[in-house]
Amino acid sequence: MGRQHAERVDLAVSTVIFALRPSPDSDLMTLWLPLVRRIREPYEGRWALPGGWLSPEHDLETAARATLGRTTGLTPRYLEQLYAFGTLDRSADDTRVVSIVYWALVHADEAAQAIDSDNVEWFAVDDLPELAFDHRTIVDYAVWRLRTKMEYSRIAHGFLGETFTLAQLRQVHEAVRGCSFDPANFRRQILATGSLVDTGEHLTGTSHRPPRLYRYDTAVQPADHGPLTPSKEQA
Amino acid sequence: MGRQHAERVDLAVSTVIFALRPSPDSDLMTLWLPLVRRIREPYEGRWALPGGWLSPEHDLETAARATLGRTTGLTPRYLEQLYAFGTLDRSADDTRVVSIVYWALVHADEAAQAIDSDNVEWFAVDDLPELAFDHRTIVDYAVWRLRTKMEYSRIAHGFLGETFTLAQLRQVHEAVRGCSFDPANFRRQILATGSLVDTGEHLTGTSHRPPRLYRYDTAVQPADHGPLTPSKEQA
DNA sequence: ACAAAAGTGTTGCTCATACACCCATGA
DNA sequence: TCATGGGTGTATGAGCAACACTTTTGT
Protein backbone atom coordinates (compact mmCIF):
# COMPACT_ATOMS: atom_id res chain seq x y z
CA MET A 1 0.00 0.00 0.00
CA GLY A 2 2.92 2.34 0.52
CA ARG A 3 3.61 2.37 -3.21
CA GLN A 4 4.55 5.44 -5.12
CA HIS A 5 2.23 6.63 -7.83
CA ALA A 6 3.66 6.33 -11.30
CA GLU A 7 4.04 9.55 -13.25
CA ARG A 8 2.58 8.25 -16.45
CA VAL A 9 0.71 5.33 -17.97
CA ASP A 10 2.59 3.10 -20.39
CA LEU A 11 0.71 1.27 -23.10
CA ALA A 12 1.69 -2.23 -24.14
CA VAL A 13 0.21 -4.67 -26.64
CA SER A 14 0.49 -8.41 -25.98
CA THR A 15 -0.83 -11.42 -27.84
CA VAL A 16 -1.99 -14.84 -26.75
CA ILE A 17 -1.09 -17.08 -29.69
CA PHE A 18 -2.83 -20.43 -29.94
CA ALA A 19 -1.79 -23.41 -32.02
CA LEU A 20 -2.94 -27.00 -32.06
CA ARG A 21 -0.25 -29.64 -31.64
CA PRO A 22 -0.17 -33.31 -30.79
CA SER A 23 0.14 -33.87 -27.08
CA PRO A 24 3.42 -35.50 -25.96
CA ASP A 25 1.76 -38.41 -24.11
CA SER A 26 -1.47 -39.10 -25.93
CA ASP A 27 -1.64 -38.62 -29.69
CA LEU A 28 -4.59 -36.30 -29.34
CA MET A 29 -4.30 -32.68 -30.38
CA THR A 30 -4.07 -30.12 -27.59
CA LEU A 31 -3.73 -26.36 -27.28
CA TRP A 32 -0.27 -24.81 -27.16
CA LEU A 33 1.00 -21.26 -26.94
CA PRO A 34 4.40 -19.59 -27.19
CA LEU A 35 5.89 -17.70 -24.26
CA VAL A 36 9.01 -15.57 -24.08
CA ARG A 37 11.47 -15.58 -21.21
CA ARG A 38 11.93 -12.20 -19.57
CA ILE A 39 15.48 -10.94 -19.69
CA ARG A 40 15.09 -8.07 -17.24
CA GLU A 41 13.38 -7.07 -14.05
CA PRO A 42 10.67 -7.29 -12.94
CA TYR A 43 10.08 -11.04 -13.15
CA GLU A 44 13.44 -11.66 -14.81
CA GLY A 45 13.70 -15.27 -15.92
CA ARG A 46 9.95 -15.87 -15.77
CA TRP A 47 7.88 -16.73 -18.81
CA ALA A 48 5.57 -14.05 -20.18
CA LEU A 49 3.26 -13.37 -23.09
CA PRO A 50 4.96 -11.98 -26.19
CA GLY A 51 4.34 -8.28 -26.62
CA GLY A 52 5.88 -4.85 -26.60
CA TRP A 53 5.29 -1.17 -26.07
CA LEU A 54 2.87 0.57 -28.39
CA SER A 55 4.58 3.15 -30.53
CA PRO A 56 2.55 6.14 -31.74
CA GLU A 57 2.90 5.23 -35.40
CA HIS A 58 1.51 1.72 -35.07
CA ASP A 59 -2.06 0.56 -35.06
CA LEU A 60 -3.09 -1.69 -32.17
CA GLU A 61 -3.75 -4.62 -34.48
CA THR A 62 -0.56 -3.96 -36.41
CA ALA A 63 1.38 -4.10 -33.17
CA ALA A 64 -0.23 -7.43 -32.29
CA ARG A 65 0.58 -8.80 -35.74
CA ALA A 66 4.18 -7.64 -35.44
CA THR A 67 4.56 -9.36 -32.09
CA LEU A 68 3.22 -12.51 -33.64
CA GLY A 69 5.65 -12.37 -36.53
CA ARG A 70 8.60 -11.70 -34.24
CA THR A 71 7.78 -14.57 -31.91
CA THR A 72 6.59 -17.26 -34.27
CA GLY A 73 7.40 -16.11 -37.77
CA LEU A 74 3.80 -16.82 -38.63
CA THR A 75 0.85 -14.87 -39.95
CA PRO A 76 -2.32 -15.18 -37.88
CA ARG A 77 -5.25 -17.01 -39.40
CA TYR A 78 -7.45 -15.25 -36.91
CA LEU A 79 -6.81 -12.21 -34.73
CA GLU A 80 -9.10 -10.48 -32.29
CA GLN A 81 -8.81 -8.07 -29.42
CA LEU A 82 -9.27 -9.79 -26.08
CA TYR A 83 -9.31 -7.17 -23.35
CA ALA A 84 -7.50 -4.16 -21.92
CA PHE A 85 -5.86 -4.96 -18.59
CA GLY A 86 -5.13 -1.97 -16.46
CA THR A 87 -5.38 -2.49 -12.71
CA LEU A 88 -2.99 -0.45 -10.62
CA ASP A 89 -0.99 -3.32 -9.17
CA ARG A 90 -0.26 -5.41 -12.22
CA SER A 91 3.36 -4.37 -12.74
CA ALA A 92 5.34 -5.45 -9.66
CA ASP A 93 7.43 -2.26 -9.71
CA ASP A 94 6.05 1.25 -9.41
CA THR A 95 5.24 1.73 -13.07
CA ARG A 96 1.73 1.85 -14.40
CA VAL A 97 1.13 -0.32 -17.44
CA VAL A 98 -2.06 -0.85 -19.39
CA SER A 99 -1.86 -3.86 -21.69
CA ILE A 100 -4.18 -4.27 -24.62
CA VAL A 101 -4.19 -7.98 -25.29
CA TYR A 102 -5.06 -9.72 -28.55
CA TRP A 103 -5.52 -13.40 -29.18
CA ALA A 104 -4.63 -15.21 -32.36
CA LEU A 105 -4.90 -18.58 -34.02
CA VAL A 106 -2.10 -19.98 -36.15
CA HIS A 107 -1.45 -23.40 -37.53
CA ALA A 108 1.91 -24.43 -36.31
CA ASP A 109 3.65 -26.66 -38.78
CA GLU A 110 7.17 -26.46 -40.18
CA ALA A 111 7.70 -22.72 -39.94
CA ALA A 112 6.93 -22.56 -36.25
CA GLN A 113 9.97 -24.61 -35.29
CA ALA A 114 12.25 -22.07 -36.92
CA ILE A 115 11.95 -19.48 -34.20
CA ASP A 116 12.61 -21.87 -31.35
CA SER A 117 15.29 -19.73 -29.82
CA ASP A 118 16.28 -19.87 -26.16
CA ASN A 119 13.85 -17.13 -25.28
CA VAL A 120 10.79 -18.49 -27.05
CA GLU A 121 9.20 -21.77 -26.13
CA TRP A 122 5.86 -23.42 -26.75
CA PHE A 123 3.85 -24.74 -23.79
CA ALA A 124 0.74 -26.87 -23.52
CA VAL A 125 -2.08 -24.73 -22.17
CA ASP A 126 -2.87 -27.17 -19.39
CA ASP A 127 0.76 -27.45 -18.35
CA LEU A 128 1.97 -23.87 -18.06
CA PRO A 129 4.86 -22.67 -15.92
CA GLU A 130 4.50 -19.75 -13.51
CA LEU A 131 3.94 -16.63 -15.53
CA ALA A 132 5.05 -13.04 -15.01
CA PHE A 133 2.65 -10.25 -14.03
CA ASP A 134 -1.03 -11.15 -14.33
CA HIS A 135 -0.38 -13.14 -17.47
CA ARG A 136 -1.87 -16.29 -16.03
CA THR A 137 -5.20 -14.51 -15.62
CA ILE A 138 -4.93 -13.26 -19.17
CA VAL A 139 -4.21 -16.71 -20.60
CA ASP A 140 -7.09 -18.25 -18.66
CA TYR A 141 -9.42 -15.64 -20.02
CA ALA A 142 -8.16 -16.11 -23.56
CA VAL A 143 -8.68 -19.86 -23.33
CA TRP A 144 -12.18 -19.27 -22.05
CA ARG A 145 -12.91 -16.93 -24.94
CA LEU A 146 -11.52 -19.37 -27.49
CA ARG A 147 -13.62 -22.21 -26.10
CA THR A 148 -16.75 -20.09 -25.91
CA LYS A 149 -16.33 -18.65 -29.36
CA MET A 150 -15.71 -22.07 -30.85
CA GLU A 151 -19.24 -23.02 -29.83
CA TYR A 152 -21.01 -20.47 -31.96
CA SER A 153 -18.41 -19.26 -34.42
CA ARG A 154 -16.38 -20.65 -37.28
CA ILE A 155 -12.95 -19.89 -35.92
CA ALA A 156 -11.82 -23.53 -36.07
CA HIS A 157 -10.80 -22.46 -39.56
CA GLY A 158 -7.78 -20.78 -38.00
CA PHE A 159 -6.23 -24.09 -37.07
CA LEU A 160 -6.67 -25.74 -40.47
CA GLY A 161 -5.30 -25.45 -43.97
CA GLU A 162 -7.21 -24.41 -47.07
CA THR A 163 -9.00 -27.71 -47.42
CA PHE A 164 -9.77 -30.26 -44.74
CA THR A 165 -11.90 -33.26 -43.97
CA LEU A 166 -14.81 -33.18 -41.58
CA ALA A 167 -12.86 -35.47 -39.27
CA GLN A 168 -10.04 -32.94 -39.06
CA LEU A 169 -12.50 -30.16 -38.34
CA ARG A 170 -14.12 -32.30 -35.71
CA GLN A 171 -10.77 -33.02 -34.08
CA VAL A 172 -10.12 -29.30 -33.78
CA HIS A 173 -13.43 -28.82 -32.03
CA GLU A 174 -12.76 -31.78 -29.77
CA ALA A 175 -9.29 -30.56 -28.85
CA VAL A 176 -10.44 -27.06 -28.00
CA ARG A 177 -13.72 -27.93 -26.31
CA GLY A 178 -12.23 -30.90 -24.53
CA CYS A 179 -14.92 -33.42 -25.33
CA SER A 180 -15.77 -35.76 -28.19
CA PHE A 181 -18.59 -35.43 -30.67
CA ASP A 182 -20.65 -37.93 -32.59
CA PRO A 183 -19.22 -37.85 -36.13
CA ALA A 184 -22.63 -38.25 -37.72
CA ASN A 185 -24.26 -35.42 -35.81
CA PHE A 186 -21.22 -33.18 -36.11
CA ARG A 187 -21.38 -33.58 -39.87
CA ARG A 188 -25.00 -32.59 -40.06
CA GLN A 189 -24.68 -29.61 -37.74
CA ILE A 190 -21.71 -28.18 -39.58
CA LEU A 191 -23.17 -28.74 -43.03
CA ALA A 192 -26.47 -27.23 -41.89
CA THR A 193 -24.74 -23.92 -41.22
CA GLY A 194 -23.92 -23.71 -44.91
CA SER A 195 -20.46 -22.41 -44.21
CA LEU A 196 -18.65 -25.32 -45.84
CA VAL A 197 -18.13 -25.95 -49.53
CA ASP A 198 -17.53 -29.41 -50.92
CA THR A 199 -14.43 -29.23 -53.10
CA GLY A 200 -15.37 -32.49 -54.85
CA GLU A 201 -11.91 -33.82 -54.10
CA HIS A 202 -11.09 -36.60 -51.70
CA LEU A 203 -8.21 -37.24 -49.38
CA THR A 204 -6.44 -40.43 -50.45
CA GLY A 205 -3.80 -42.56 -48.81
CA THR A 206 -5.89 -43.45 -45.81
CA SER A 207 -6.47 -47.04 -44.80
CA HIS A 208 -10.18 -46.65 -45.24
CA ARG A 209 -12.79 -44.95 -47.34
CA PRO A 210 -11.37 -41.65 -48.64
CA PRO A 211 -13.08 -38.68 -46.99
CA ARG A 212 -14.24 -35.59 -48.87
CA LEU A 213 -12.26 -32.39 -48.70
CA TYR A 214 -14.12 -29.23 -47.78
CA ARG A 215 -13.30 -25.55 -47.91
CA TYR A 216 -14.79 -22.71 -45.91
CA ASP A 217 -17.25 -20.53 -47.75
CA THR A 218 -15.37 -17.26 -47.94
CA ALA A 219 -18.60 -15.34 -48.44
CA VAL A 220 -19.56 -15.93 -44.81
CA GLN A 221 -17.81 -13.97 -42.09
CA PRO A 222 -15.98 -16.30 -39.71
CA ALA A 223 -16.97 -14.40 -36.57
CA ASP A 224 -17.87 -10.97 -35.27
CA HIS A 225 -14.48 -9.42 -35.38
CA GLY A 226 -15.24 -6.50 -33.13
CA PRO A 227 -16.62 -3.09 -33.91
CA LEU A 228 -14.43 -2.27 -36.88
CA THR A 229 -15.73 -4.76 -39.40
CA PRO A 230 -19.28 -3.65 -40.13
CA SER A 231 -21.01 -7.04 -40.14
CA LYS A 232 -23.52 -6.44 -37.40
CA GLU A 233 -26.08 -4.28 -39.15
CA GLN A 234 -29.70 -5.08 -38.66
CA ALA A 235 -32.42 -4.75 -41.28
CA MET B 1 -1.68 10.97 -45.65
CA GLY B 2 0.81 13.78 -45.13
CA ARG B 3 0.16 13.70 -41.41
CA GLN B 4 2.83 14.07 -38.80
CA HIS B 5 3.43 11.21 -36.46
CA ALA B 6 2.46 11.95 -32.90
CA GLU B 7 5.21 11.77 -30.30
CA ARG B 8 3.31 9.80 -27.75
CA VAL B 9 0.11 7.82 -27.23
CA ASP B 10 -2.54 9.32 -24.97
CA LEU B 11 -4.90 7.08 -23.08
CA ALA B 12 -8.53 8.01 -22.55
CA VAL B 13 -11.44 6.22 -20.91
CA SER B 14 -14.97 6.81 -22.19
CA THR B 15 -18.31 5.34 -21.22
CA VAL B 16 -21.46 4.58 -23.14
CA ILE B 17 -24.23 5.01 -20.58
CA PHE B 18 -27.59 3.44 -21.31
CA ALA B 19 -30.88 4.20 -19.67
CA LEU B 20 -34.45 3.25 -20.52
CA ARG B 21 -36.92 6.10 -20.89
CA PRO B 22 -40.36 6.53 -22.37
CA SER B 23 -40.19 7.58 -25.99
CA PRO B 24 -41.51 11.10 -26.72
CA ASP B 25 -44.02 9.96 -29.38
CA SER B 26 -45.13 6.48 -28.39
CA ASP B 27 -45.38 5.57 -24.72
CA LEU B 28 -43.07 2.61 -25.21
CA MET B 29 -39.72 2.53 -23.47
CA THR B 30 -36.66 3.17 -25.62
CA LEU B 31 -32.91 3.38 -25.15
CA TRP B 32 -31.30 6.69 -24.29
CA LEU B 33 -27.76 7.80 -23.60
CA PRO B 34 -26.12 11.01 -22.36
CA LEU B 35 -23.66 12.92 -24.53
CA VAL B 36 -21.50 15.91 -23.69
CA ARG B 37 -20.90 18.87 -25.96
CA ARG B 38 -17.26 19.44 -26.79
CA ILE B 39 -15.99 22.85 -25.71
CA ARG B 40 -12.70 22.78 -27.63
CA GLU B 41 -11.12 21.61 -30.85
CA PRO B 42 -11.16 19.18 -32.49
CA TYR B 43 -14.88 18.79 -33.12
CA GLU B 44 -15.77 21.81 -30.99
CA GLY B 45 -19.54 22.04 -30.54
CA ARG B 46 -20.15 18.44 -31.56
CA TRP B 47 -21.62 15.85 -29.19
CA ALA B 48 -19.30 13.19 -27.83
CA LEU B 49 -19.22 10.33 -25.35
CA PRO B 50 -18.43 11.33 -21.78
CA GLY B 51 -14.91 10.45 -20.78
CA GLY B 52 -11.52 11.77 -19.85
CA TRP B 53 -7.81 11.11 -19.77
CA LEU B 54 -6.61 8.20 -17.70
CA SER B 55 -4.49 9.35 -14.80
CA PRO B 56 -1.83 6.97 -13.47
CA GLU B 57 -3.41 6.67 -10.05
CA HIS B 58 -6.81 5.53 -11.31
CA ASP B 59 -8.00 2.10 -12.27
CA LEU B 60 -9.66 1.77 -15.68
CA GLU B 61 -12.98 0.83 -14.15
CA THR B 62 -12.66 3.56 -11.53
CA ALA B 63 -12.14 6.08 -14.28
CA ALA B 64 -15.25 4.84 -16.09
CA ARG B 65 -17.27 5.06 -12.85
CA ALA B 66 -16.00 8.58 -12.21
CA THR B 67 -17.04 9.68 -15.69
CA LEU B 68 -20.46 8.25 -15.06
CA GLY B 69 -20.84 10.06 -11.78
CA ARG B 70 -19.69 13.36 -13.26
CA THR B 71 -22.07 13.14 -16.20
CA THR B 72 -25.21 11.70 -14.69
CA GLY B 73 -24.76 11.75 -10.92
CA LEU B 74 -25.69 8.08 -10.96
CA THR B 75 -24.06 4.83 -9.89
CA PRO B 76 -24.01 2.16 -12.58
CA ARG B 77 -26.14 -0.92 -12.04
CA TYR B 78 -23.94 -2.69 -14.54
CA LEU B 79 -20.52 -1.79 -15.93
CA GLU B 80 -18.37 -3.67 -18.40
CA GLN B 81 -15.44 -2.97 -20.65
CA LEU B 82 -16.48 -2.69 -24.28
CA TYR B 83 -13.36 -2.36 -26.42
CA ALA B 84 -10.11 -0.46 -26.86
CA PHE B 85 -10.22 1.82 -29.89
CA GLY B 86 -6.84 2.78 -31.24
CA THR B 87 -6.63 3.28 -34.98
CA LEU B 88 -4.16 5.91 -36.13
CA ASP B 89 -6.69 8.31 -37.64
CA ARG B 90 -9.31 8.53 -34.96
CA SER B 91 -8.31 11.92 -33.60
CA ALA B 92 -8.78 14.56 -36.30
CA ASP B 93 -5.61 16.43 -35.29
CA ASP B 94 -2.12 14.93 -35.18
CA THR B 95 -2.39 13.40 -31.75
CA ARG B 96 -2.59 9.68 -31.12
CA VAL B 97 -5.33 8.65 -28.74
CA VAL B 98 -6.29 5.17 -27.58
CA SER B 99 -9.69 5.09 -25.91
CA ILE B 100 -10.70 2.28 -23.62
CA VAL B 101 -14.46 2.33 -23.68
CA TYR B 102 -16.82 0.96 -21.06
CA TRP B 103 -20.57 0.58 -21.22
CA ALA B 104 -22.97 0.95 -18.36
CA LEU B 105 -26.60 0.55 -17.44
CA VAL B 106 -28.35 2.96 -15.10
CA HIS B 107 -31.96 3.52 -14.30
CA ALA B 108 -32.69 7.08 -14.99
CA ASP B 109 -35.30 8.45 -12.65
CA GLU B 110 -35.36 11.65 -10.61
CA ALA B 111 -31.64 12.01 -10.02
CA ALA B 112 -30.77 11.94 -13.68
CA GLN B 113 -32.52 15.20 -14.40
CA ALA B 114 -30.32 17.03 -11.90
CA ILE B 115 -27.26 17.05 -14.12
CA ASP B 116 -29.05 18.35 -17.16
CA SER B 117 -26.60 21.16 -17.69
CA ASP B 118 -26.03 22.85 -21.03
CA ASN B 119 -23.20 20.50 -21.88
CA VAL B 120 -24.91 17.22 -21.03
CA GLU B 121 -27.97 16.02 -22.85
CA TRP B 122 -29.78 12.71 -23.23
CA PHE B 123 -30.52 11.37 -26.73
CA ALA B 124 -32.60 8.49 -28.00
CA VAL B 125 -30.28 5.88 -29.45
CA ASP B 126 -32.14 5.77 -32.75
CA ASP B 127 -32.15 9.54 -33.08
CA LEU B 128 -28.57 10.59 -32.45
CA PRO B 129 -26.92 13.77 -33.70
CA GLU B 130 -23.59 13.71 -35.54
CA LEU B 131 -20.93 12.63 -33.12
CA ALA B 132 -17.29 13.62 -32.72
CA PHE B 133 -14.39 11.31 -33.60
CA ASP B 134 -15.38 7.68 -34.20
CA HIS B 135 -17.94 7.83 -31.43
CA ARG B 136 -20.76 6.82 -33.72
CA THR B 137 -19.00 3.54 -34.44
CA ILE B 138 -18.47 3.06 -30.73
CA VAL B 139 -22.10 3.68 -29.87
CA ASP B 140 -23.28 1.30 -32.59
CA TYR B 141 -21.02 -1.38 -31.25
CA ALA B 142 -22.15 -0.79 -27.68
CA VAL B 143 -25.80 -1.06 -28.72
CA TRP B 144 -25.03 -4.29 -30.51
CA ARG B 145 -23.31 -5.68 -27.43
CA LEU B 146 -26.17 -4.66 -25.18
CA ARG B 147 -28.72 -6.32 -27.47
CA THR B 148 -26.64 -9.46 -27.85
CA LYS B 149 -25.90 -9.78 -24.18
CA MET B 150 -29.53 -9.27 -23.28
CA GLU B 151 -30.32 -12.49 -25.14
CA TYR B 152 -28.27 -14.76 -22.94
CA SER B 153 -27.52 -12.74 -19.82
CA ARG B 154 -29.40 -11.23 -16.94
CA ILE B 155 -28.36 -7.65 -17.44
CA ALA B 156 -31.94 -6.40 -17.76
CA HIS B 157 -31.58 -6.09 -14.01
CA GLY B 158 -29.58 -2.92 -14.60
CA PHE B 159 -32.64 -1.07 -15.80
CA LEU B 160 -34.94 -2.08 -12.95
CA GLY B 161 -35.32 -1.44 -9.25
CA GLU B 162 -34.96 -3.95 -6.45
CA THR B 163 -38.27 -5.64 -7.08
CA PHE B 164 -40.24 -5.77 -10.29
CA THR B 165 -43.04 -7.59 -12.03
CA LEU B 166 -42.52 -9.97 -14.89
CA ALA B 167 -44.30 -7.52 -17.16
CA GLN B 168 -41.76 -4.82 -16.32
CA LEU B 169 -38.91 -7.20 -16.97
CA ARG B 170 -40.49 -8.19 -20.25
CA GLN B 171 -40.88 -4.56 -21.26
CA VAL B 172 -37.15 -4.02 -20.72
CA HIS B 173 -36.36 -6.95 -22.97
CA GLU B 174 -38.82 -5.73 -25.56
CA ALA B 175 -37.41 -2.21 -25.53
CA VAL B 176 -33.83 -3.34 -25.92
CA ARG B 177 -34.37 -6.18 -28.33
CA GLY B 178 -36.90 -4.25 -30.33
CA CYS B 179 -39.58 -6.92 -30.57
CA SER B 180 -42.43 -8.18 -28.42
CA PHE B 181 -42.61 -11.45 -26.56
CA ASP B 182 -45.43 -13.74 -25.59
CA PRO B 183 -46.05 -13.03 -21.90
CA ALA B 184 -46.77 -16.70 -21.17
CA ASN B 185 -43.61 -18.03 -22.78
CA PHE B 186 -41.48 -15.22 -21.42
CA ARG B 187 -42.61 -16.07 -17.92
CA ARG B 188 -41.70 -19.72 -18.27
CA GLN B 189 -38.33 -19.07 -19.84
CA ILE B 190 -37.27 -16.57 -17.21
CA LEU B 191 -38.50 -18.65 -14.28
CA ALA B 192 -36.80 -21.74 -15.72
CA THR B 193 -33.41 -20.03 -15.41
CA GLY B 194 -33.90 -19.98 -11.65
CA SER B 195 -32.47 -16.49 -11.41
CA LEU B 196 -35.64 -14.90 -10.04
CA VAL B 197 -36.97 -15.08 -6.50
CA ASP B 198 -40.63 -14.63 -5.70
CA THR B 199 -40.87 -11.98 -2.97
CA GLY B 200 -44.39 -13.12 -2.07
CA GLU B 201 -45.58 -9.55 -2.38
CA HIS B 202 -47.81 -8.16 -5.08
CA LEU B 203 -47.99 -4.87 -6.85
CA THR B 204 -51.33 -3.23 -6.07
CA GLY B 205 -53.10 -0.26 -7.50
CA THR B 206 -53.39 -1.65 -11.00
CA SER B 207 -56.72 -1.86 -12.75
CA HIS B 208 -56.42 -5.61 -13.05
CA ARG B 209 -55.15 -8.67 -11.22
CA PRO B 210 -52.17 -7.66 -9.07
CA PRO B 211 -48.92 -9.15 -10.38
CA ARG B 212 -46.27 -10.77 -8.20
CA LEU B 213 -43.11 -8.90 -7.38
CA TYR B 214 -39.84 -10.67 -8.02
CA ARG B 215 -36.26 -10.03 -7.03
CA TYR B 216 -33.08 -11.23 -8.71
CA ASP B 217 -31.34 -14.11 -6.99
CA THR B 218 -28.15 -12.43 -5.82
CA ALA B 219 -26.36 -15.78 -5.61
CA VAL B 220 -26.26 -16.00 -9.39
CA GLN B 221 -23.80 -13.83 -11.29
CA PRO B 222 -25.61 -11.49 -13.66
CA ALA B 223 -23.13 -11.99 -16.52
CA ASP B 224 -19.54 -12.80 -17.30
CA HIS B 225 -18.00 -9.56 -16.23
CA GLY B 226 -14.72 -10.03 -18.01
CA PRO B 227 -11.55 -11.74 -16.90
CA LEU B 228 -11.28 -10.18 -13.49
CA THR B 229 -14.24 -11.76 -11.75
CA PRO B 230 -13.37 -15.45 -11.53
CA SER B 231 -16.72 -16.93 -12.51
CA LYS B 232 -15.64 -18.94 -15.56
CA GLU B 233 -13.93 -21.91 -13.94
CA GLN B 234 -14.70 -25.33 -15.29
CA ALA B 235 -15.05 -28.45 -13.17
C1' DA C 1 -70.69 -7.53 -15.02
C1' DC C 2 -66.77 -6.17 -17.67
C1' DA C 3 -62.09 -5.06 -19.03
C1' DA C 4 -57.48 -6.10 -18.70
C1' DA C 5 -53.61 -8.19 -17.47
C1' DA C 6 -51.82 -12.28 -14.55
C1' DG C 7 -51.01 -16.81 -14.85
C1' DT C 8 -51.74 -22.07 -16.57
C1' DG C 9 -52.38 -25.86 -19.98
C1' DT C 10 -51.75 -28.00 -24.32
C1' DT C 11 -50.27 -28.89 -28.92
C1' DG C 12 -47.20 -29.12 -32.69
C1' DC C 13 -42.82 -28.09 -34.62
C1' DT C 14 -37.80 -27.99 -34.71
C1' DC C 15 -33.61 -29.62 -33.51
C1' DA C 16 -30.12 -32.23 -30.96
C1' DT C 17 -28.77 -36.79 -29.40
C1' DA C 18 -28.11 -41.57 -29.77
C1' DC C 19 -27.28 -45.35 -32.30
C1' DA C 20 -28.09 -48.78 -36.13
C1' DC C 21 -26.56 -49.46 -40.46
C1' DC C 22 -24.31 -49.25 -45.24
C1' DC C 23 -20.04 -47.66 -48.11
C1' DA C 24 -15.33 -47.61 -49.86
C1' DT C 25 -10.78 -48.20 -49.44
C1' DG C 26 -5.92 -50.42 -47.86
C1' DA C 27 -3.85 -54.34 -46.17
C1' DT D 1 -12.34 -60.57 -46.38
C1' DC D 2 -11.58 -57.85 -42.63
C1' DA D 3 -10.74 -53.68 -40.15
C1' DT D 4 -11.47 -48.81 -40.12
C1' DG D 5 -13.30 -44.69 -40.46
C1' DG D 6 -16.62 -42.17 -43.97
C1' DG D 7 -21.21 -41.29 -44.57
C1' DT D 8 -26.72 -42.03 -44.21
C1' DG D 9 -31.09 -43.07 -41.96
C1' DT D 10 -34.15 -42.76 -38.14
C1' DA D 11 -36.35 -42.90 -33.49
C1' DT D 12 -36.57 -40.56 -29.12
C1' DG D 13 -36.85 -36.60 -26.26
C1' DA D 14 -36.16 -31.77 -24.88
C1' DG D 15 -37.41 -27.17 -25.61
C1' DC D 16 -39.79 -23.45 -27.67
C1' DA D 17 -43.53 -20.77 -30.21
C1' DA D 18 -48.39 -20.30 -30.63
C1' DC D 19 -52.61 -19.83 -28.64
C1' DA D 20 -56.76 -21.29 -25.89
C1' DC D 21 -58.22 -20.83 -21.43
C1' DT D 22 -58.79 -19.71 -16.34
C1' DT D 23 -57.90 -16.30 -12.45
C1' DT D 24 -58.07 -11.99 -9.96
C1' DT D 25 -58.25 -7.52 -9.36
C1' DG D 26 -60.29 -2.30 -10.24
C1' DT D 27 -64.06 0.19 -11.94
Please describe what this structure looks like.
The structure is a homodimer of 235-residue chains. By secondary structure, the first copy, chain A, is of the alpha+beta class. Chain A is built from five helices and ten strands, in the order E-E-E-E-H-E-E-H-E-H-E-H-H-E-E. The first copy, chain A, folds into two domains: 9-151, Alpha-Beta Complex (Nucleoside Triphosphate Pyrophosphohydrolase), CATH 3.90.79; 154-216, Arc Repressor Mutant, subunit A. Chain A has helices at 60-72, 110-114, 135-152, 166-177, 183-192, and strands at residues 9-22, 29-37, 47-48, 51-53, 78-85, 96-105, 120-124, 163-164, 196-202, 212-216. In chain A, a hairpin with a 6-residue loop joins strand 1 and strand 2 (29-37). Chain A is elongated, with a radius of gyration of 20 Å. The model of chain A has no long low-confidence stretch (mean pLDDT 90). Chain A binds a DNA duplex (27 and 27 nucleotides) through helix 5. Chains A, B: InterPro entries: NUDIX_hydrolase-like_dom_sf, NUDIX_hydrolase_dom, WH-like_DNA-bd_sf, WH_DNA-bd_sf, WHD_NrtR.
